[in-house]
Design brief:
Largest sheet: 2 strands, antiparallel
Radius of gyration: 17 Å
Number of helices: 11
Distance between the termini: 5 Å
Number of strands: 2
Oligomer: single chain
Strand content: under 5%
Number of domains: 1
Shape: globular
Strand order of the largest sheet: 1-2
Structural class: mainly alpha
Length: 224
């Protein structure tokens, strides 16, 4: 069902206000890089993930952690842990998989066993950076929409008792794929003039939740 004009306007405004830090890290020269927009972040990380060198893949995965934890104090610790714990074999397997990945792929990525990449939040970030026009992130911020009085796709996620992250299983992979499809549908049918991809729609919903406008976000997700 197409979004109303009011819903489209609210979503486009949220997309424009999305303000997550556009940063990566240059691990060779040991300095942070600030990009003009998320397009720069996407281009750099995708290039690293699809590099023919395992050190490039390692840097791409480390940069997903660096970007994803940009507003959290233990970011550098998580990045360091990953770099110390990831094995050459895991990087070889990841390089082979990421270059040929089809579909949602989050179960396949999880099976590689990369440290720091066990839950759906960060594994979906890997998938998103490979193809941001078609794949998006599903993280804890979006799970908060389950608290709204409107049923959304996120109500279909399954959690183990006392889970602190979104587990990856076949059922949740199916929910993730439906979420990606929903974002693609909004981008192609409702927001054609904005030249947006699926990830821009997801970032708009994320921004709405972060800006205490979760009810409107839930209405959009339930309508589309």
């Amino acid at each position: 069902m197409p979004l109303s004009h009011t819903q489209q306007s609210a979503l486009v405004d949220a997309m424009r206000r999305y303000d997550f830090p556009c940063v990566t890290y240059d691990f060779v020269n040991r300095r942070e890089k600030t990009h003009d927009s998320m397009r720069g972040v996407e281009t750099e990380i995708r290039g690293q993930l699809l590099a023919n060198r395992t050190d490039g893949v390692r840097d791409g995965l480390a940069n997903i952690l660096y970007w994803g934890y940009a507003r959290i104090g233990y970011r550098d610790h998580r990045v360091k842990q990953f770099q110390e714990q990831v094995t050459d074999q895991q990087l070889v397997e990841a390089s082979s998989l990421l270059s040929r990945l089809r579909g949602p792929g989050v179960c396949d990525i999880k099976r590689v066993g990369l440290p720091q990449f066990s839950g759906l939040s960060f594994v979906s970030k890997v998938r998103m950076f490979l193809d941001p026009c078609n794949y998006v992130v599903l993280d804890q911020k979006l799970v908060k929409l389950r608290e709204q009085p409107i049923r959304t796709i996120f109500c279909d996620l399954t959690f183990a008792r006392r889970a602190t992250s979104i587990p990856i299983n076949k059922a949740n992979e199916e929910v993730y794929e439906r979420w990606c499809q929903l974002c693609r549908r909004i981008a192609s049918q409702c927001l054609q003039m904005s030249r947006s991809g699926a990830v821009d729609v997801e970032r708009g919903i994320f921004q709405m939740v972060a800006s205490n406008n979760a009810l409107r976000a839930a209405e959009i997700v339930a309508t589309a």
